[in-house]
Amino acid sequence: MSEQIKNFLYLNRRAPYGTIYAWESLEVVLIGAAFDQKVSLAFLDDGVFQIVKGQDTSGVEMKNFSPTYSALGDYDVNQLYVEQESLEERGLTIDDLMHLTWEDEDEDWAEKDSIRVVSRAELASIIEQQDIVFSF
Amino acid sequence: MAIEIDGKTFETDEEGYLVNLKDWVPAVADAMAKEDDLELTDEHWDIINFLREYYEEYQIAPAVRVLTKAVGKKMGKEKGNSKYLYALFPYGPGKQACRFAGLPKPTGCI
């Protein structure tokens, strides 16, 4: 049997705080990234709030883990899909999101954007192309 | 478990990692290194300080693969390789250096 690289997609659908799902998803992604699989993330529904910039958790006494999303590029996780409709339904645009990037070692560490805004229809077809989908 | 330094107690977990990150002082790293029969040099401190900065920025301790790449980028290829890092930290640059730095066990370390 040959080793096969699979396409993993993690769907993030919930608000970052209040439940443990968002943080758990991020930890699973970081751990999974060690296995040299092709990993991408999608943010939809309230999940888009996970990557909104300027988060302040002092009022809810939870750790603000939003800086950790900026480490994803170091872990070679650089395909982050954000659903356009979910942003619009919440009055958000891409400018409300953190500027998440990765550095291409093959191009002298050129900084490249990780986030791609896609329509609901596009996201459906992205989901279809995956081997494994985790929903958080 | 705990480490005692000059009459002050630092609580550690069952694997020897500091329980309260905010308690960390450089003497903690020296005491942990001594228990591992290591003497910390400037080269060790470069990595320990790098890890603390990484944690400050990203709120996680990097996996060893990520650490190696990041050290290579910042300090040059001759330091950004596992041979160099394992020579400094024989129990693993991720686990041992993070422990000395007062960080939790690296995310992605299993």
Write a short abstract of this structure.
By secondary structure, chain A is α/β, with parallel strands linked by helices.
Describe the structure.
The complex is a heterodimer of chains A (136) and B (110). Chain A is α/β, with parallel strands linked by helices and 136 residues long. Chain A has three helices and seven strands. Chain A has helices spanning 21-32, 84-89, 120-128, and strands spanning 7-12, 38-43, 80-83, 101-104, 110-113, 115-118, 132-135. Chain A starts with 6 loop residues before the first strand and ends with a strand. The model of chain A has no long low-confidence stretch (mean pLDDT 93). Chain B has a single domain, classed as Arc Repressor Mutant, subunit A (Orthogonal Bundle), CATH 1.10.10. Chain B is globular. In chain B, strand 1 and strand 2 form a beta hairpin. With 110 residues, chain B is mainly alpha-helical. The longest helix of chain B has 17 residues, at 42-58. Chain B has five helices and two strands. Classes of the chains: A alpha/beta (136), B mainly alpha (110). At the A-B interface, helix 1 of A face helix 3 of B.
- Helix share, percent of chain B: 40-55%
The most extensive interface, with participating residues per chain, is:
A-B, 17 and 14 residues
Write down how many β-strands of chain B occur, each being a DSSP E stretch of 2 or more residues. Answer: 2
Q: What is the CATH class of chain A?
A: Alpha Beta
What is the helix tally of chain B?
5
Strand order of the largest sheet of chain A: 6-3-2-1-7
Low-pLDDT runs of 5+ residues of chain B are: none
The low-confidence runs of chain A, each spanning 5 or more residues with pLDDT under 50, are none
